[in-house]
Amino acid sequence: MKYKETFINEGYELDDKAIEKLENFYNLLQEWNYKIDITKIVDEEEVYIKHFLDSLLITKSGVIEKNQKIIDIGTGGGFPGVPLKIYNDSLSFTLLDSLKKRINFLDIVKEDLNLENVENLHGRAEEIARKEEYREKYDVATSRAVANLQTLLEYCLPFVKVGGYFIAMKGPNFKEELKDSKGAIKILGGVLDKVIEYELPLSLGQRSLIVIKKIKATPHRFPRSGGKPRTKPLN
């Protein structure tokens, strides 16, 4: 893998098996992207850094540990879930997306890469979070570039068990969103734990992780249905 040194410089030493899986994942992305428009990022260097490495950089949060159960909400092409699973096989993942064609793609990825303890789930977060088998069952929920933070909080915190974490993966312009989300964090049972800002290598952009700790159960009325988390976000 030509970007192996870049990964090592960021603290991620990949064994041969993991490198092979990332390469196969890249090939599948290239093959299927033309069919179902998975990502606008297609340049090899950008895929490896902006998708693969950035997915691993969620570990900068300090809350990702072995054997955790994680849900990746609005996973799209499988980010950050698939690269993180490849890097740390002890993790169990639910990859949730509202578009069936993306889940179909992830089913192929799961089979071709032989990923165990991965559930690819088609559905809307506001509906799935009301199901007993998913509500407050995860150590960590994460979401990457899906919606405004106020909306994401309502989608994601209901999945997190008390004592667990929600990690929002954002760009550099998060401060206004975070300010507007103080009420939603409290209402949904969370507290701001930390914010981590970092730069991708090769000058490919700035990123931030907003880490919310779940300190009490989310009230049963959340998430609201009918698209309200988007149209009428909590204040």
Salient structural properties:
alpha/beta, single chain, globular, seven-stranded mixed sheet, 7 strands, 10 helices, 235 residues, 37% helix
The helicity comes to: 25-40%
Gap from first CA to last CA: 46 Å
Contiguous helical run count: 10
Stretches where pLDDT is under 50 for at least 5 consecutive residues are none
Give the overall form.
globular
Give the beta-strand count: 7
Structural class: alpha/beta
- SSE series: HHHEHEHEHEHEHHEEH
Strand arrangement, largest sheet?
3-2-1-4-5-7-6
Let me know the average pLDDT: 96
Beta-strand residue percentage: 15-25%
The main sheet comes to:
7 strands, mixed
Q: What gyration radius follows from the Cα positions, in whole Å? A: 17 Å
Provide an overview of this structure.
37% of the residues lie in helices and 23% in strands. The protein has ten helices and seven strands. The protein starts with a helix and ends with a helix.
Secondary-structure blueprint:
Layout: H1 4-9, H2 16-36, H3 44-56, E1 69-73, H4 81-87, E2 92-97, H5 100-112, E3 118-122, H6 125-128, E4 138-144, H7 149-156, E5 160-170, H8 175-180, H9 182-187, E6 190-199, E7 206-214, H10 228-231
Helix pairs in contact: 2-5, 3-4
Can I get a quick summary?
With 235 residues, this protein is of the alpha/beta class. Helices cover 37% and strands 23% of the residues. The chain is built from ten helices and seven strands.
